[in-house]
Write the structure tokens for this entry.
Amino acid sequence: MLRLITPLFFIFAGVIYVVFTFNLPQAKIGDPNGPLYFPAVIGIFLLLMSIVYLFQEWKKRGEKMEKVRQLFTGRTPFLIIASLVLIFIYTFLFERIGFLYSTIIFLTGLLFVVNGRKQWIKNILIAVIFSFITWYSFAELLNVSLP
Amino acid sequence: MGVDFQHIVEGFMVAIKPINLFLIIIGGFLGTVVGMLPGLGPATAVAVLIPITFGMDPTSALILMATIYYGAMYGGSRSSILINTPGDGSAIAATFDGYPMAQKGQAGQALTISAIASLIGGLFAIIGFIVLAKPLAAFALEFGPAEYFLLFLFTLSAIVSLSIGNMVKGFISMSIGLVLSTVGVDLQSGVHRFTFDIPQLSEGVDFLVVIIGIYAVGEVFYNYISIDKLKKEKKKVGSKWITKEQWNQTKWPMLRNGPIGFLIGVLPGAGGSIASMLSYSTEKQLSKHPEKFGKGAIEGLAAPESSNNAASVGAFIPLLTMGVPGSGTTAVILGAVVMLGLRPGPLLFENNPEMVWTLVDSMFIGNIFLVILNILLVGLLVRILDTPPKVLYPLILVLAFIGTYTLSYSMIDFYILVIFGLIGLGMKLLDFPVAPLILAVIVGGDMEQNFRKSIVAQDNFLNVIVASPVTIALTILTILSICYPFFIGWLRKRKQKNT
């Protein structure tokens, strides 16, 4: 039954989009309904396709979703959640302590999580060197301003 | 009209400027490295490396992105041959005979022949480009809103029906892309659409963030699944010099499949994947020993390699002459080019001919450079392939964030990036093709504007379809492309019944 979640989600999203489309303010210039023609066509098309998709999945409702199952095996859930947490920290630090330091912290963290704790010297070295090279090439060579 | 030798020569002089030669080398090398990473292909390579084009003049940026693109195509075949993990669809056919060759200890020869085949395919396609591009651009000059709208419609339906797998999912993916393209202020009326009073959304969703999110963050997350399963294979590369017999076996397949790949690449929607698969099966049917295919037949490697590289050059034709990308990767390049303030389309050939021809000449130089890189430095590349993905995936993530930041200097984009990364992961897990979404996000705005203009000009939709011979032809092509999967399915069923 898990299979039906995605099509139902798309149907829900399609309905919301269509409702919002028909509630769009009218244009003051040109055709008053101009802004809504295109979204209306897409919204209805998305809705139709999602309903067909629901029927397709309904026929297969007994089958297992192999790829989705793989997501929850081994280290994968940990890797993704840990990456998300690190991204969140990175976002928080980025403009506060500057590009170079926050990137070193972010990359070291990622390497510890993904590459493992055993290779800590290598992880730190890679993080520092890579962060410095990117910082140097963006800020100095490409004149992109970084915090 | 016709071939413009003066511009080709002038373009060549620009292409061999030191800065551009340097970019070709850097782009080719970086593209090869990212393309070699298991699970990552040209679209990811270009998406992640977009930020390094900022601040460059558009010609150099275009050269760099093009070299990254076919560098990644070369790199993709390396990982197909050596570790049997293609980076994207267009490298799949290289695993059929390339990997068996590597298992037989002929990895070096397989790598050499794939590089030579790619070069031959690429050179063919460059000649094709020179002959075909200008007439096509002149033809596209006549296009009005109705033609453009239907051209976009055809491209989208072609990419949906040709993306391997479920068509309904492809159409949903496309619709989501179009939905995203409607967010923001409507250009014709100034009405705010789906912005929910968030000021950042009034300019719309930045498609480059969508691209980097899906192709870089999403792909890295998806590759986490197999990160511990990748086993290191220590393999002898063997001699990289091909024998005279091998050359004789492969020269015709390479020459035949260059033009095939080029023509498929020119078609909007069909790219390297289809070209290489078609070439593989054609070559198998032509072969006197079809039973050897799949067991390390060298012509089974040469044919798709020549074809997919030709397709990648061919794909630049619709991109540059009409502003319509034919594949996921060219869509990414279009996104980046638009960001640089260029409008690809027929006028590009009128206003900036030197840019177009510089690009073409740089492709010529780039292909030759990549062959040298891939044959002479084979040892170094194999060692890069040994660099664990566990180190390289985090680096790609970091690049994705830096790239996103340099787009708009806004932290909100970080969150949007992560959201699209997770959407990309979900799409991969549920087998939704990504290319229709990317293409739709990028062309959606143009498509809508042309749709509305053509309705105004022609009064109603039926008149839009019959506005000109071109619109009628495009409508027929659209219907054919939607029917094509059903036709193939019917053929397959009939074949099964017969056997």
Q: What stands out?
A: Chain A touches chain B through 64 residues (CB under 8 Å). Chain A has a mean pLDDT of 88.
